[in-house]
Design brief:
The complex is a heterodimer of chains A (about 90) and B (about 190). Chain A has about 90 residues and is mostly helical. Chain A contains 3 helices and no strands. By secondary structure, chain B is mainly α. Chain B has a single domain, classed as Four Helix Bundle (Hemerythrin (Met), subunit A), CATH 1.20.120.80. Chain B contains 6 helices and no strands. The termini of chain B are far apart. The relative contact order of chain B is 0.16. The chains are: A mainly alpha (about 90), B mainly alpha (about 190). The interface between A and B is large, with 49 and 54 residues.
Amino acid sequence: MAETELEHKQPNYAGVFWSLFVLTILEIIAANAPIAKTFSVIALVTLAVMKASLVALFYMHLKFEKQLFYMIVFFPLLLAFILTLMVLADKAIA
Amino acid sequence: MKSESNIGSLGVDTRKLGVWLFLASEIMFFTGLIGSYIVLRFANLESWPVPSTVLNIPLTALNTFILICSSATLVLGLASIQRGDKEGLQVGLFLTILLGAAFLSIQMNEYKALIQEGFTISGSIFGSCFFTLTGFHGAHVFAGVIWLTVVFLQSFGPRFSRDQFCGVEMVGLYWHFVDLVWIILFTILYLI
């Protein structure tokens, strides 16, 4: 490709779209299901992470990019994870 | 503008690198807001309302679907210009702008209904968190719609072709990031 690196196959955009659609419906079901709050939260966070990963990997083409872009995304995500973990741990102790 | 001149010493397009670095700073920005939300929520567990008793979940689920559709129309527009189909790009961009505007319109109506019911930014901590997080996200959507409109207008000139579409890729990266942030916000603000 002339402008940017696109020597990869076109992702299955329709497949990603329908996956996001189904995962959103599953989220609504999980939020309203008569299950323990802990399980509901775990299910919802897992589904949200799956949806966000699909968008980043396929719509943002991260799956097909050079490692440098992974590094650019990885470090703020790592910091975000550590911050969230520390806040949760602090609140759990308090 | 020839492509080779934009490839920096790292072997990547410097324009795209710039957008990714900007998005990295945006990750930290929203992490700060979400971190504050977690602190405030855990500090006020007893008084924190069940979101579904205050917020309109079906309407927001529809809005989430609209944003997911807008990401799909944008990638289809990008795929079109990569095949040299300029009309496909224009249709994709136009639909994305419409869907982005629809998202904002529904969000404004949601705000109006909530404020009429007495749920305001100063009424409760949940209200402060809700309006701050969704408001900043909405501002990002607004900026994205403006950027998309600029790219849409540029698409009528000679700027984009089968070999030159970095401008579309850059607005796409931003728009998909905004979609990604909404996926997280929808879960933590409305569903959990």
